[in-house]
Specification:
Layout: E1 2-10, H1 27-37, H2 46-49, E2 52-53, E3 62-72, H3 78-83, E4 89-97, E5 109-117, H4 125-135, E6 137-140, E7 156-167, E8 170-177, H5 184-196, H6 208-212, E9 231-237, E10 244-245, H7 251-293
Parallel strand pairs: 3-9
Antiparallel strand pairs: 1-3, 1-4, 2-3, 4-10, 5-8, 5-9, 6-7, 7-8
Helix pairs in contact: 4-5
């Protein structure tokens, strides 16, 4: 058997996360079903194919470069696999890899992006970037993770970089590391937003330095994880692996994403119009009430 790596993009809305689970719809469940129908793997005998993935993503989280690998006697045909997938999932690139290739352990860096809509709530980006810089490097990120207290888990991770980019009305957070803890990115965003709203600061109790301190593991209020639908697994990077794209442009899936973007934009415009009008009416009503009292 030869070994293959595939790049998978998906929109996480409407799925119970990536990892397959019984009785619920997941990205991986639909993907494995498509690979089985394309006669690439036996869905009920994944050990035979040494199936592996680069990362797990939670319910609602999307991906551009999720990477999976498996061994197969048959050469995968991306067009055929995509024909068995819903529009929200697309296998868009392939590479033949060595028999030892593991997409998780051999991934030298992953980048997650979080897209936050700030609206009229202006953030102090300068102090947010100060906190972001403190998060970079090797730390114990226990206070930025969801975990099982009964498990013997290691919380030390090296965060290569944290970027914060304003693109009004959005703020983009970009995190790059070899590996992340469960909910780590979403909790780091939650903390940085608290800093930006000046609810805390890098040096205050429950601030960035305090949360990174091993001394406060059991006495700290953890940052709240932001909603998952703004999170995207943007890149998974490997040395010496050259992926080639599908032989056709997946027009149906691209049109689906274009339509979704238009729908979301329309909904945003309607909601923004309503918000502004209600604010205007509320202000006018307050002025009228004050005038009546006078």
């Amino acid at each position: 058997m030869r070994r293959w790596a595939l790049r998978v993009a998906y929109l996480g809305l409407g799925y119970h996360g990536f990892q397959r689970q019984p009785n619920v719809v997941t990205i991986e469940g639909r993907l494995l079903d498509a690979l089985h129908r394309a006669d690439v793997i036996e869905n009920k005998n994944l050990k035979k194919h040494r199936y592996a993935i680069a990362a797990r993503t939670d319910s609602g989280v999307s991906a551009l470069e999720q990477t999976i690998a498996f061994s197969s006697s048959n050469t995968p045909n991306l067009n055929q696999i995509n024909s068995y997938l819903p529009n929200s999932i697309c296998v868009w690139a392939i590479a033949e890899v060595s028999d030892e290739f593991n997409p998780k352990s051999l991934c030298y860096s992953k980048t997650y992006e979080y897209h936050h809509y700030q609206g009229t709530r202006k953030l102090n980006l300068s102090i947010m970037r100060e906190s972001a810089h403190l998060l970079e490097g090797t730390h114990n990120f226990r206070n930025f993770a969801r975990y099982n207290s009964k498990s013997d888990q290691r919380f030390e991770r090296m965060l290569f970089s944290v970027e914060i980019v304003e693109n009004n009305p959005l703020v983009l957070f970009r995190f790059t590391a070899k590996a992340f803890l469960w909910e780590q990115c979403r909790r780091m965003v939650g903390h940085l937003l608290d800093v930006g709203l000046e609810k805390t600061s890098p040096n205050e109790p429950n601030g960035t330095l305090y949360l990174l301190s091993n001394e406060c593991e059991y006495q700290v209020t953890k940052p709240t994880a932001v909603p998952p639908d703004g999170l995207l697994l943007a890149t998974t990077n490997y040395e010496g692996i050259h992926f080639r794209s599908a032989s056709y442009s997946p027009l149906k899936k691209i049109k689906f994403l274009e339509q979704l973007s238009q729908d979301l934009f329309r909904r945003h415009q309607v909601a923004e119009k309503m918000r502004k009008r209600i604010s205007e009416l509320r202000s006018a009503n307050l002025i009228q009430n004050i005038s009546q009292r006078v």
